[in-house]
Amino acid sequence: MSTYQTFSTDEKPLSILDVRDAKNRRKLAMVTAYDTPSARIVDRAGVDMVLVGDSLGMVMLGRKDTLSVTLDEMIHHCRAVVQGIHHALVVADMPFMTYEPGPDTALSNAARLVRESGVRAVKLEGAFLPQIRALVGAGIPVMGHIGLTPQRSAQLGGFKVQGKRAEAARQLLDEAAALEDAGCFAIVLEAIPAPLAAAITARVSVPTIGIGAGADCDGQVLVLHDMLGLYSEFTPRFVKRYAELGTLMEQAVRDYAEEVRSGAFPTPAHGFSMDEEERARLEDRLRETE
Predict the structure, then answer these.
(1) pTM for the model
(2) Residue ranges per structural domain of the chain
(3) Where does Mg(2+) bind (predicted)?
(4) Marked catalytic residue, from 116, 190, 259, 276
(5) What pLDDT, on the 0 to 100 scale, is given for residue 227?
(6) Was 68 annotated as part of a binding site?
(7) 55 marked ligand binding residue
(8) What is the CATH number of domain 16-243?
(9) For residues 69 and 54, is the Cβ–Cβ distance under 8 A?
């Protein structure tokens, strides 16, 4: 029997401390969202955290990678997500090159992201320790992210599993410890071997959130559009499809188009009636203009 507590529907917004306290007590569920309707759905479903990922560049905007996503675009989508959230903790990705140049740049951009969108935490890819310390010191909670870091996929040789060799695994262990020491409240472990993720999880006192990192992490995160079958350009091995909504949506639109063309839609039930006296007056007016 699991020693983890189950999720309890609580209207109180989840805090950073709640996330940290979940370590060794219950598993954390995290998904992405990029707009208000999706945010409302996942929040009602009871997830603990919602990530507004820069994956929106690919999933929502049709781009080939995440690198072109701007801070303005992130603020736009984050603001929409925050509008739909009552319970979950909303975390926002810091876009490429909004934090790499240095602590001052990172602090300025993170402050703007938090202030203008209303998110309560940010996520940085990689072990940019001075930047993380600057943000945490200013009161901005930071989620770390190591392993496969999509913003640096070109440097990593593509979207490949990281830490497969002992030396690389040791480096990731050290990076996780350094992120914890720098003040991260949680750490995403992406596309690393399950035994390595288990070792990291056992060694750090903050929750680990896995994505393609095995079952021993303290929580899991998936891209909503991947798990619902709404994004088919690329499906990582670690994704589980919980629904095929893309197929259902396509069929629904096809049915609609066919009914429009055949005249089956709309029916009188989908329209509005008119008072008979007013209709007679309208017809009189129309005859006068003939």
Answers:
(1) 0.91
(2) 16-243, 249-288
(3) 54, 93, 125
(4) 190
(5) 96
(6) no
(7) yes
(8) 3.20.20.60
(9) yes
